[in-house]
Amino acid sequence: MINGTERILVCCGTGCIANGALGVADAIERELVAHGLSDEVKVDVSVVRTGCSGECEQGPIVRFMPRDLMYYRVKERDAAAIVESLEGEPVKKLLFKKDGETYEHMDDNPYYALQHKVVLKDVGIIDPLSLDDYIARGGYEGLKKALAMTPDEIITEVEKSGLRGKGGAGFPTGRKWRTAAGYDVFPKYIVCNGDEGDPGAFMDGSTMEGSPHAVIEGMIIGALAIGAEEGVLYIRDEYALARDHIQHAIDDAYATGILGESIMGTDHKLDLSIVRGGGAFVCGESTALMASIEGRVGEPRAKYIRSVQRGLFDHPTVLNNVESLASIPTILREGGEAYAQVGTERSKGTKVFAMVGKVKHTGLVEVPMGTTLRTLIYDIGGGIIDDRPFKAIQTGGPSGGCIPEELLDLPVDFDTLVEYGAMMGSGGMIVMDDRSCMVEVARYYVDFLCEESCGKCTPCREGLRQMRAILTDICEGRGKPGDIELLERIGRTMQDASLCALGRTAPNPVMTTIKFFRDEYEAHIDRKECPAGVCAELTQFAIKPDACTGCGLCSRACPAGAISGGRKEVHVIDPAKCIACGSCREACRFDAVLTERRPA
Amino acid sequence: MSDMITVTIDGIECTCEKGEYIYDVAKRNGIKIPTLCRHDAFEDHRACCRICIVEVEQRGRTKVVTSCVYPIDGECEIRTNSERIQEERAVLYALLGHRAPEAELIGKMSRRLDMNGFERLVSIDNEKCILCGLCVQACNSLGTGAISTVLRGTEKKVATPYDEPSKFCVGCLSCANVCPTGAIEYSQTDTIRTIWHRDFELLHCAECGEVMGTAESVRHAVGPDGELPTICDACRKKRLANEMMATYRYV
């Protein structure tokens, strides 16, 4: 039974929308009208379309608040049952289940129980298009405090929090602001980097979608601290929903006097606008991003003179990542020391990760800095799909590395992974099982970077070109002795001599896979064998007769018509027709498809 | 002077002002650092070929920096030819040499380095361009802006927009002349010059008959309201000298 106002939160993050969340929300609204709810309930129920609730793989997610009843994988046809449950028992089949247990509340679900939400505290709870919703949860309290403080006091508070740039570089935000505040050159700019481009990453997009005012409040506080009166949000073009929500929030902020000529009635002013990125990965690099805003080719420049001194239009500029800025309101509201209570010695606060790949519960998580990879993958993520063996986790996108099983107990923070040649990066995490070929993974990232490097400097552009050629050769059985050493040699020069951070970290996927999975490279080169059974030129597939049940799933999945066999008969793969795509192995429920070395 | 700093470059003590680039200080002291994308004609340097990398040791830390744009900010020891730099420069030459196998300059510049171990690298057929970007800088600094680098990553190249004839190009050949590897192709008959997919009519000196440039480049030089010259610079000077001799009996 409900007391007072009940809100039905329907997750309308990008993932849930793709799974039909908007239809679910509409259906629930229709049911509310049609359904014979008791009068007092009817007037007090509203449907709220929220940002990403996090557990994307279980979406669309519907949650009752304040009752905290959470439904997963909701379909439109469930709407009537959901509305009925407002006054009755929960709909059992829509609750979260694990190991035979059923969980009604969000905090009972281990996926959420181990999280600590600061940046995402309102995401999935509020209507991102409602300024009132944001204010009701303490929004713009931080700004009010900041308006009563001097710039120096604001910066001191941020310094106390220990906040470091969450885009991946980890530069102390307070120090960046203090440097920018020290220059008496005007105008100054504050820029929000919303160009998140790592494959598999959606932290910043979800934050902008789900809590746009938090980003704007962070920017206003930053502008007050450094003395900027103009700010730009650079948002990648693919993030249409994020852009719409941010624009809506900016409009609301202007209309209510939070932005514009007089911030909340004070003498301070700030104008914010959105610049759409053109879809270039490299424009996430600070100097390339600023070049892009200025209308020039998105190429980085040497950063011996930093952007805080000479950035956008050659003026002092602070560039902060979305997640850093969205942390600022909480830091101001609750104090820097409170924020610093969470995290490790040198990495304070929390970090949002987008966990994807072969993990059971994919989605968005926010955990204290220093949480181990094992906790993230197994306790929060629920382990590997089909309980297959874990092989590696790719962190930090194309600038990061592949981390093997033996390092899973390392705390994830700005510094630890770097010591092992990988990096935490901006927060993208791709989990891989034993059916991932690490040489192929390295080739994938190098291929991505061949297209997405700006191509300005020699080591990055030409180094990647040569790496791609060598890795393709290795994957296709043309690897030669000495290839690994040559890759390392090119990689070291790229790390030292590239112009920007993207180029200096571009060889990381190759260098870390060589470091931790050298035997796999050697198998490809010396024995022309792909141990994971991925590289098509080196692999052939066969069916184990004693394991095959003749269910026919494999033959239906085969795009080449290479598998034959009658119902309940052992199936056979015709090697002449097989294209080694691996679809049969993915489809088989009985582990009956095996891979072996393809004879030369 | 308070802002003078003493640094050591390859063991030689050099004095410089704070903020001066390593490359310039080295050059002034007779230390030649190789480079491909840096040109005295321009104030800004793209710092993209990376050949001019050097090692800087400062406050106990050693890093590799690009000497053409690295401003010296304090006492430090700079090594332009250490083992590490030689190795990395060799890799860079190898990368450029395979990108542009027709660029003979790369082979000449790298001949003193150990260039073994790169036989495995792949080459681009018939390529001469090393993407140093000097042509684009030249075109921009003339105010024409007809060419730029287009595309990104390994596909990057220098081109006019959409590889079509550019209405801003004046056919002046500045791009081709500044190119260190001779990668920009053009052809010329008695009356027509062809570059960047476009034909330009050539103007000839009324006196000596030498080519003065394309009609567009001569117009660009005198400005939209300027008077178009009919004779070349050399003939104009000669004519002036003759007039002065006739008038004053001396020049």
Report on the architecture of this protein.
The complex is a heterodimer of chains A (600) and B (251). Chain A is an alpha/beta fold. Chain A has five domains: 6-108, Glutaredoxin, CATH 3.40.30; 131-340, Rossmann fold, CATH 3.40.50.11540; 350-433, Roll (Ubiquitin-like (UB roll)); 438-526, NADH-ubiquinone oxidoreductase 51kDa subunit, iron-sulphur binding domain (de novo design (two linked rop proteins)), CATH 1.20.1440.230; 536-597, Alpha-Beta Plaits (2-Layer Sandwich), CATH 3.30.70.20. The mean pLDDT of chain A is 93. The two termini of chain B are 45 Å apart. In chain B, the strands form three sheets. In chain B, strands 2-1-5-3-4 form a five-stranded mixed beta sheet, sandwiched between helices. Chain B has a four-stranded antiparallel beta sheet with strand order 8-9-10-11. A two-stranded antiparallel sheet of chain B has the order 6-7. Chain B has seven helices and eleven strands. Chain B has two domains: 4-109, Roll (Ubiquitin-like (UB roll)); 134-245, no CATH class. Chain B has helices spanning 22-28, 83-99, 104-109, 134-141, 174-178, 215-222, 233-248, and strands spanning 4-9, 12-17, 53-58, 61-66, 77-79, 148-150, 157-159, 186-188, 192-195, 198-204, 211-214. The model of chain B has no long low-confidence stretch (mean pLDDT 95).
- The domain count of chain B comes to 2
Task: Give the termini separation of chain B.
Answer: 45 Å
Task: Assign the CATH class of the largest domain in chain A.
Answer: Alpha Beta
Strand order of the largest sheet of chain A: 12-11-15-13-14
The backbone outline of chain B, from C-alpha atoms, is globular
List the secondary-structure elements of chain B in sequence, H or E.
EEHEEEHHHEEHEEEEHH
Summing up helix and strand content along with how strands pair, one would put the structural category of chain A as alpha/beta
Largest sheet entry of chain A = 5 strands, mixed
The secondary structure category of chain B is: alpha+beta
| Helix coverage percent of chain A | 25-40%
**Arithmetic mean pLDDT of chain A:** 93
